[in-house]
Amino acid sequence: MAREMKAAGRPRDPKTAENIKSTTLRLMREQGYAAVSIASIISESGVAKQTIYNRWKTKADLVLDAIFEETERYASAPDHDFNKSCREQLYQFLIEVFEHLERDSRIICALIASAQEDKLFQKSFRERFVNPREKIVEDILRRAHSLGQISTERDIPTLVAFIHGAFWYPLLNGIQPDRKLAQNIVAEIFRH
Amino acid sequence: MAREMKAAGRPRDPKTAENIKSTTLRLMREQGYAAVSIASIISESGVAKQTIYNRWKTKADLVLDAIFEETERYASAPDHDFNKSCREQLYQFLIEVFEHLERDSRIICALIASAQEDKLFQKSFRERFVNPREKIVEDILRRAHSLGQISTERDIPTLVAFIHGAFWYPLLNGIQPDRKLAQNIVAEIFRH
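ok -> structure tokens follow
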């Protein structure tokens, strides 16, 4: 019964959400996170204020959603191409993350900043953005463990923190991670 | 002549600055970074608004100055006790940093967040806070290199990014770095 009533309600238009998200991403890229307000997103996308607040609690939530699909495009789980060594897979993953950061580092740094001021947002940022990328690296390293490509004595959670930390740290200090950093990370992780 | 004129001006009272900084630190610890305004610091410390703005451009600059001395107390360069191995020195340094973070992580995360929104502040945060601590770790690792405690093939800047990143990363995701993390970091850096 409850389900029927829900089904009878006005359906959410997925195109509207796509429009809002792409407008948000465009404005953020043009003007930066701080300069863009919900009001300017409303005015640019031509939707009603309530349409936005029905879906997203805060600007940070909306931006997270908008950036999320981009992140998936750049830094999704690698194909399990077993011809590729784990070292190559990790390198490929890092290069894709860094390409994404080259385009959207200002937005991502602003989201990390928002997460410091809002614990609820920190939780959703961690669950939707951080943890899935942590898992990708962890899976590559576990496979490397099982294939003997890294020593079983190595502690995987520490290596995962090294790998992500090694680009979060320069990024948040205003330094863009580059190809050389990706090479140095994999060399250090996979050295014998 | 210019110097004489300057010397004749009203001297800055160092006690006033100490009072403002300790009030700032106390308010930040009690209420958190976002909740404390320059107005509340003025009201609590009983100084004139202009006294504060003569010294500090923004709240972030004042907080950086206030936290700076604390940081020096916890995480300064290690004594060059040559009886201590580099591994022990690094462990000791990390434990002190983590103790400081246990007390002031909210303030430090808020400063890192401010650095994302204000490039000038990011520069001074990096110069005063980040770089000196990077240098401490770098010096320990260079000594380890020269003493053969780590292989000369290892790339020191990458290891420095691993070490700092390994606690920035959990910290900014709401996870307090602990003793176990310090042990895992040194074990990984100094493994043969």
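Residues 86-117 of chain B form the longest helix (32 residues).
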